[in-house]
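Recall the central idea of this unit: under ordinary conditions, the amino acid sequence of a chain determines the structure it adopts. In this exercise we apply that idea directly, starting from the sequence alone.
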Amino acid sequence: MSTGEGQRPLSRPLVSLVVANLATIILALLQDWDVGTVIFIYWFQSVVIGIFTIAQILTFPAAGVRASGGSRLWGGGLLPDLARIALPGPGVWLVRLVLAGFFAFHYGFFHWIYLIFLAAFGFLQTVNFGDPDLILACGIFVINHLYSFIFYRGKEPGELTGLKEVITQPYQRILPMHLTIMLAGFASFAIPFTSGWYNQLVLVFFLGVKTYADVKGHVEKHRAGMKREN
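Accordingly, the structure predicted from this sequence is:
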């Protein structure tokens, strides 16, 4: 199955991602969520993306680990020879563990600072963390990314998707998403309307742009695997 002129395949995980975003928009409208609640949901989605990126690093094909090489990973800087260790098993796992640990620390620290930023600017003050609908929205994204991880596992060979791309793609994907949502947040502070259809219209617009950024990031990440699938 494909979209457009057949150049952009429409995979089942992509459809589920669109459904997950649409479900969040519908819940936001029905429950009259403020921007802070929506921002937290997408912050949580970013954390989930990071968790499954770690899983992808730890399960990256051994041939792809050796083919990537340290120089291609870090431009000849950090760990220049680690990926070329001759030991077929332990060497590959050492590379996976080191890179997964590095990514977990860097990505996790980024999201911790981001969460502090959200709290400092008051975005989280009105979030009801015990709201069943909030938990449902977060759970939908967990299911979506778990399904995507299982679906694409083994379908994207290491020679087409290198370790460097696996590590950098989450940032390329989430930054446009969160810039969009943060704009919605600051717009909600700047606009004198705090409720009603106008505020909902602004929210839907920004969530639609966020959904587009999310889908685009997904397509860019899995382009090789989707071409093979279709």
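Strands lie at 2-3, 8-9.
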